[in-house]
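sry for the spam today, last one i promise. struct tokens for design, 128 residues
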């Protein structure tokens, strides 16, 4: 069992930056694939980024590629999402998720159903 708690959300102007954190409790955090998803009002939850257990493999949604960076610190049981050049369309509740394995093929990595544990989310609002 893994419990996930996100933090770091807030209100920022377009072009600004935020860093989200997701603190995990429970055993074997370092063995989990960790992902970030987001959900805007009236829309489905969508994939943002994922990182494997070691940090050696990452994958991003096209909409955030080059602007967002996912990383993890297994010693601190924490995964991060560094968000730069934020746009109003990035406004959403951001969720941290954990998967027991590295979802494959690529289509599985972006699927909500591939992840076993979820945090409660943190609101990110980007003003224009």
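last one done:
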């Amino acid at each position: 069992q893994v419990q996930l708690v996100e933090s770091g959300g807030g209100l920022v102007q377009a072009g600004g930056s935020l860093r989200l954190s997701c603190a995990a409790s429970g055993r074997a955090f370092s063995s989990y694939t960790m992902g970030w998803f987001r959900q805007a009002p009236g829309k489905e939850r969508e994939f943002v980024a994922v990182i494997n257990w070691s940090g050696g493999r990452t994958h991003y949604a096209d909409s955030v590629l080059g602007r967002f960076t996912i990383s993890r610190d297994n010693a601190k049981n924490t995964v991060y999402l560094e968000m730069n050049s934020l746009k109003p369309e990035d406004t959403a509740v951001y969720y941290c998720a954990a998967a027991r394995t590295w979802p494959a093929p690529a289509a599985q990595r972006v699927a909500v159903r591939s992840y076993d544990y979820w945090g409660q989310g943190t609101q990110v609002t980007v003003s224009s």
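The helical segments are 106-109. ok im logging off now
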